[in-house]
Write a structure and sequence with these properties.
Blueprint (H helix, E strand, L loop, with lengths): L2 H19 L3 H17 L4 H28 L16 E6 L7 E4 L2 E7 L11 E8 L2 E6 L2
Parallel strand pairs: 3-5
Antiparallel strand pairs: 1-2, 1-4, 2-3, 4-5
Length: about 140
């Protein structure tokens, strides 16, 4: 059996093992075996094939694995639910919004609202950003 076939079989076995372990280490070793398959197919002698495998493995484990591990350890982005999800949304003024009263439409629902800056008067039809939710009232600020 040719050397390159043995390296190819090793690459496939390591790749399949990576699917079951999800450690990234076996996949990188499989990649090194695949690189060595090419070296063997080009006719390099076995000692040089082992050097290629060692260098490719070391490069993968030292350079790539820390990056992969960092991405695997990151917590998922926080998801906001309920009224917290409304903060940062765009709203449309249904009735004039002042520092005390007003109505806006946020995502198809009508909410009571008041201006975040109490000195502002936001006219009907204006587009605003929801900066905060206090109870059932949206604190809004006009878009520039």
């Amino acid at each position: 059996m040719d050397d390159w076939v043995i390296w190819l079989i090793l690459a496939v076995v390591l790749g399949v093992a990576e699917i079951f372990t999800l450690t990234a280490a076996l996949g990188l070793l499989g990649g090194a075996a695949l690189i060595t398959t090419i070296a063997a197919a080009l006719g390099l002698p076995v000692p040089l094939q082992l050097v290629v495998f060692t260098l490719a493995s070391a490069a993968g484990l030292v350079l790539v694995r820390p990056i992969v591990a960092r991405h695997l350890r990151q917590p998922p982005p926080s998801q906001r639910f309920g009224v917290e999800a409304l903060v940062g949304q765009t709203a449309y003024v249904v009735t004039e919004v002042t520092g005390r009263t007003g109505r806006v439409q946020i995502g198809g629902e009508e909410w009571s609202a008041r201006a975040y800056d109490e000195t502002l008067v936001i006219p009907e039809g204006a587009t605003v950003d929801v900066l905060k939710i206090e109870g059932a009232t949206a604190l809004v600020y006009p878009r520039e």
